Amino acid sequence: MNMDDHPQLRDLIKETLTGKSNLQQKIFDNTFGVFNDLKEVLHEMSAELHDELEGQLDKRIKIEYRDRGKFECQLQVAGDMIIFIMHTDIYEFNREHEIWNNPYVQEEPRNAYCGMIDMYNFLGDSFKYNRAADTGYLIGRLFVNHDMRYCVEGKRQANLRHDCFGSRRIDREALLGIVETAILYSLDFHLLVPPYDNVKLVTVEQMNTKFEHTKLHTGKRMGYKFNVDDV
Question: What percentage of the chain reaches a pLDDT higher than 90?
């Protein structure tokens, strides 16, 4: 390597650090702020639903919010548990993704760098009885960029898809709609009887374990194809 190349390489390193690294830090800060707003929305919603449904639900039916740390929280609604997880990394969409057809992204490719918050649906009993092998399903994910613009992928999440990315800033009203959609989908996403062939064999070890701690897998669609047809 020619010694004359070193200043150019050093300049490129500095340019990358001041550009890309600053951008990623801004996106992280935005996403972390949105996640904290999401926690507040979930907490307020759980309290409101509890008050509004007082006397109408069996006392054993829970509507409960729980903070599980800086980057994770959960909302239990009856037999469903929705877990929200913020990723600490920043992502760029793959080149085959439809978001690259969006004019907002085509005008400025940096707009496609986003933080991500996932929403997973589990059975509440999976956690109550510590069934570690049970399965949860990704029902939605929220993307936030450096401009606080957002888009949503997920089951029934039609309020702001990729083609509208850049048209609206994320706010508490948008978060409320995303959460309500996730709750409704989870409540309508029923537990199905697994195919007979999937459960026809069981080991002595599994039978000797208390049922609630069994290693037999449970999930809403175990043995069935979980399509992303409306993502």
Answer: 52
Q: Give the 3-state secondary structure of residue 96.
A: coil
Q: Which amino acid appears at position 50 of this protein?
A: H
Measured distance CA(39)–CA(10) in Å, rounded:
42
C-alpha span between 150 and 194 (Å, rounded): 37
Cα separation of 11 and 197, whole Å? 62
Distances (CA, A) of 194 to 115, 134, 198, 211: 36, 13, 7, 17
For 20-39, the DSSP string reads IIHHHHHHHHHHHHHHHHHH
Q: Which DSSP symbol is given to 69? A: S
Q: Which two tokens stand for residue 112?
A: 């496609």
Amino acid at site 106:
Q
| E strands, the chain, in order | 63-67, 72-77, 80-86, 91-92, 113-123, 137-144, 150-154
Query: How far are the Cα atoms of 28, 54, 109, 175 from residue 94, in angstroms, in the given order?
Result: 19, 47, 12, 25
Distance from the Cα of residue 124 to its chain's centroid: 17
Per-residue pLDDT reduced to its tens digit, 22-47:
999 999 999 999 999 999 999 999 99
What is the distance between the alpha carbons of residues 191 and 100, in angstroms, rounded to a whole number?
36
Q: Closest Cα partner for 138 from 192, 68, 189, 70?
A: 189
More confident residue, 213 or 133: 133
For the stretch 174-196, pLDDT in tens is 999 999 999 999 988 776 666 77
